[in-house]
Protein: histidine kinase
Organism: Paenibacillus lutimineralis
Amino acid sequence: MEGLDQPYLMQEFMDHSWRLEDQLYREILRRSNRAVVERIYQLENEQQDYREFIEGWIHEVKLPITGIRLACHNQEQDNSRRIERYLTELDNDVEQALFYARSDQVYKDYIIKETELEAVILNVLKKNKYLMIQNQMSAKVECDRITVFSDGKWLEFILGQILLNAMKYKNENGGMISFQAETINSGIKLTVRDNGIGIPEGDKARIFEKGFTGSNGRNRGKSTGIGLYLCKKLCNKLGLEISAQSQEGEFTEVILLFPKHSFLSKLKG
């Protein structure tokens, strides 16, 4: 054993035996070794994915930094607004990297409590107001003081990613995004709808896949394929359901469902 540089391959050096005990032992070793190799392969893939994301993120984060430098050297009247917009882009990119790094251990960082949807949405809109002005995006919120049990910070990130996607794929003359919450039999349904360019039929089934940018993302060169993937992953961790529907050239809807839980109704008293 000590002379092997890969001890998990020791079964390959065992003498063949017809004894049932030896065969069972060999089979146990074989299955155990296969599980180890598969786990190593999985970890290597995850590390590769993370490296690729960080490399892409570094490229993305350099763009608003360059813009800030140019704005600081410029004496235009709307200089401060441009700087605010670049800083918002930078903050969103940094936040995405942070949530991506934490996404496998959400349970260590979230606090589930009764949260007012409208307050979360207004925070998202306020944070991105300069980007919305730049992209000529207006917003409509219809939540009627509906509350859900969730983590406000993580929910804010999820809705922020959906808003950023709507701005990426808006029409040339601007756009509109609406947030509508309603109570249904299975819980609270939040529909986020934009009137942008929509999703091609062939891309719809893959929009939540990691790294998938689709034909729109490739054409516009603005997509990393991480935003909606993170939304899906975080929703799963938080016990939420997320889905999307779209008509190319007309609209895209992202739907969040906050399921009813018996223990939550007890918490409300």
In short: The first strand starts at residue 113 and ends at 116. The chain has two domains: 1-104, 110-267. Confidence is low (pLDDT under 50) at residues 1-5, 265-269.
